[in-house]
Amino acid sequence: MAKNGRLPLDGVRVIDFTQVMMGPCATQMLGDYGADVIKIERPGAGDLSRSSIPDDPGGLDNPVFHSLNRNKRSIALDLRGEKGKQVVRDLVKTADVVVNNFRPGVLDKLGFGYAELKKINPRIINAVGSGFGPAGPNAHKGGQDVLAQALTGVMHRRSDMAEPMSIYATALADYSAGMHLVQGILLALYQRERTGEGQEINVSLYNSMLAMQMQEAAMWLMRSRDLNWGAMPLSGVFATKDGALVLVGAFKQHPLRDICAALEIADLSADPRYDSFPDQVKNRADLQKIFRDRFVANTTAHWLKRLEAQDLLCAPVKSLAEALNDPQTAVNKMVVEVPNAGNDPIKLVASPISMSGAEIRLTRPPRLGEHGRDVLRELGYAPAKIEALVKEGVVAQGTST
Questions:
Q1: Which of these is catalytic: 78, 96, 145, 174?
Q2: What are the start-end ranges of the H helices in 196-324?
Q3: How far apart are CA 155 and CA 132, in angstroms?
Q4: How many helices (H) and strands (E) in the chain?
C-alpha cells in the first residue's frame, strides 16, 4: 500500500475482456497498483487459462490462471443477448479503460468496438492486443506466442546456427506485448489528463517481437549485417564437471587474455588465429572447443571463482526451481504469498517494479463469476433485477467471499 494509503492507479476502473496471457498479464499489473479490474468471462468456461493446462479436477486453483489474474474481480456474462450487452454498456459508463486481446473485429461484431464505446463514454481508453495488428495481410489470423517467434526472426536466430531451430521455452512474445500494452494504457491515461479525451491503442505480438530486436534490426537495416550477441566468440554456455556456467567475454580491454588466465592456459591472444576480433569470429568453433575442454575438467564453483578473480562476467546456469529459492529472489521480494480465503496461501511471482512510495496490492485470483452480484449492485441494479439476470443465465451465479 502507498504511504498515503492510496496506490498509483486507485480510482481507475478497467473492463477486462482478456484471456490466456498477453492481456491478463497486462491487466494484472494494473490491478497490482490499484486499478479496479473487472474481468468479463464466459459462463461455464471463463478464461481459457483456467483449463488449458490440466490441473486440479475442479479447476479452482490452476497455477497458470492464478499467475495472471490476481487483484481482479470476475463477472460471468452471456453476451449473446441484449441483456448481457447492456450490462457491459453500463460498466463502460463507469470505466476508464477497456482491454481485449481478441482477433481484430470480434468486439466490433458484439457492438463494443471503439466507435461504439466512445459514444457511451467519450473518455474511454480502448486498449487492444492482437497477434499482428488491426490491418495487414495477417490481421485476420489468430495470434500466438510461438507464431510471433517464428514470423519475426526470433526463432531463426540462435547462438549457434548449426543447432536446430526450436521454440523458446518461455512465452516471450506474450509477456513483452503485455508489458507494452501496460505502457500504452498508462500513456493514454496520462494524455487524457491533459486533453480530457480517450483514445484507442493497439499492441501486437508481432510488433513487440520486432521491437525487442531493435539492435539486430538496425544493424541489418543500416549495414545488411547480422548481429548475434549469443554467437560472440568469447561468450557461451559451458558444461562443467558438475553443471554448467555462462561466460560473457566482453566489455573489457583484453577479455581473451583474462579468460586464458582464469583457465590456466597459454594466452591465446598471442596466437595469430585469435589475436583480433575478426579472427576470433572466424575461428570461433576452435576457440570454443578449447574453452569447453577446460571447463569440463573442474566444477562450476571452481571456475566461477577463477573467472570472477579476473573480473569476467559469469554465472552458474540454474533451473527455475533453484532461481526461485535463491537468496537474491528473497531479498528482491519476488515471491509473494496471496491470502486464499482460509486455504493455504497462493505463492506467485511478484511485480518486477519496486516503488519507494507504494507496494503492490495482493488479493487472490477470482473464482469464475464470483463478483457478478457485487458488480451489478455497484451499478445500481435492484436486487430483484440481479436475481432475474442470474435466473435467466445472463449472469452466471457466483458468490463473494
A1: 174
A2: 205-212, 214-223, 255-263, 277-282, 284-295, 300-309, 320-324
A3: 17
A4: 17, 11
Burial (CB count <10 Å: 0-12, 13-18, 19+), residue 137: exposed
| CA–CA distance, 200 with 114 (Å, rounded to integer) | 7
pLDDT tens track of the chain, all 401 residues?
555 678 999 999 999 999 999 999 999 999 999 999 999 999 998 999 998 887 765 556 789 999 999 999 999 999 999 999 999 999 999 999 999 999 888 999 999 999 999 999 999 999 999 999 999 999 988 899 999 999 999 999 998 888 899 999 999 999 999 999 999 999 999 999 999 999 999 999 999 999 999 999 999 999 999 999 999 999 999 999 999 999 999 999 999 999 999 999 999 999 999 999 999 999 999 999 999 999 999 999 999 999 999 999 999 999 999 999 999 999 999 999 998 877 889 999 999 999 999 999 999 999 999 999 999 999 999 999 999 999 999 999 864 43
Q: Is 174 a catalytic residue?
A: yes
How much helix, strand and coil, in percent to the nearest 5, is found in the chain? 40, 15, 45
Domains parsed from the chain with CATH numbers: 13-213+338-391 (3.40.50.10540), 244-316 (no CATH)
The length of the chain, given as a count of residues: 401
Q: How far apart (Å, rounded) are the C-alpha atoms in residues 47 and 171?
A: 17
Q: With CA atoms as reference, report the closest residue to 177 among 153, 156, 148.
A: 148
97 beta partners? 14, 125
Helices 22-32 and 172-195 pack at an angle, to 10 degrees, of 50
Residue labelled with grid coordinates 569447453 = 292
Cβ–Cβ < 8 Å for 125, 119? no
